[in-house]
Amino acid sequence: GKDLRYLVRLQAGGEFHTDAGILPHDDLIGGPEGRLLKANSGVGYRVLRPTLTDFVLKMKRGAQVIYPKDLGPLLLLADVSPGARVLESGVGSGALSMTLLRAGATIVGYELREDFAARAQANVREFLGEDAMERYRVEIRDCYEGIDETDVDRVVLDLPEPWQVVPHAAKALAPGGILVAYTPSIIQVSQLRQELDHHGFLVPETVEVLQRTWHVEGVAVRPDHRMVAHTGFLT
Predict the structure, then answer these.
(1) What is the CA radius of gyration of the chain?
(2) With the CA atoms of 35, 56, 105 and 189 taken in that order, what torsion angle do they form, in degrees rounded to the nearest 10?
(3) Which of 141, 157, 161, 193 has its CB surrounded by the most CB atoms within 10 Å?
(4) d(CA 204, CA 9)
């Protein structure tokens, strides 16, 4: 049938409604993953836990999210491992936060907008649970004005003028620390790179990730007609 995916938060006594009928949440809660359940119309649904990618693409968002195709490479460019102390700004809708937390980082987030901060924290709590919140602190403040944290391992930025943060990051980072910024425009990259050079950052690198999916149906194999060619640059 149609390849439709639904992200549903299960609640005792709740019901999942679509035009194909009704499925009581109680039929799903506590049951095994991967089973097929039928709505009262007879239409079948396969029950699976959402992956991080599923959640990022379907969760409620305030700010635009960084897409999974960039989140994976960003994690490796920032070389995030369990216990890493990360300063993140701005936190937006929390897609990057949950990716970093999932990799074991401890995060202090700076976010200007209270509504974004609240949304990000709600999304992180919903996907990773209350335990993850012990490694996640979000402050309502402007990263351009300075960073109070010292000896952080990584600074990860998703904001319009990352070059404004570079002088502060240079002081806040531990020796051998890494800064990674996500920017939609190459003009931003150019300014950022100048500032990084100016503050003694070494081995700069800017990459763009292109992702092309393929249509595979029996022997009919070809690239998909549509691809997400550009989202942003990682520096």
Answers:
(1) 21
(2) 150
(3) 157
(4) 42
Of the pLDDT bands very low, low, confident and very high (cuts 50, 70, 90), residue 227 is confident
| Mean of per-residue pLDDT scores for the chain | 94
* Token digits of residue 188: 């931003």
Q: Is 86 helix (H, G, I), strand (E, B) or coil?
A: strand
Contact 128, 100 (CB under 8 A): no
Side chain identity, residue 82: P
Q: What is the pTM of this model?
A: 0.91
What is the DSSP pairing of strand 21-24 with strand 15-18? antiparallel
The first and second tokens of residue 179, run together, are 């800064």
Tell the residue number behind the tokens 């790179």, with chain if given. Answer: 193
Q: 92 near 116, Cβ under 8 Å?
A: yes
**Rounded distance between C-alpha atoms, residue 37 and residue 183, angstroms:** 43
pLDDT, position 21? 86
Whole-angstrom Cα distance, residue 181 to residue 159? 8
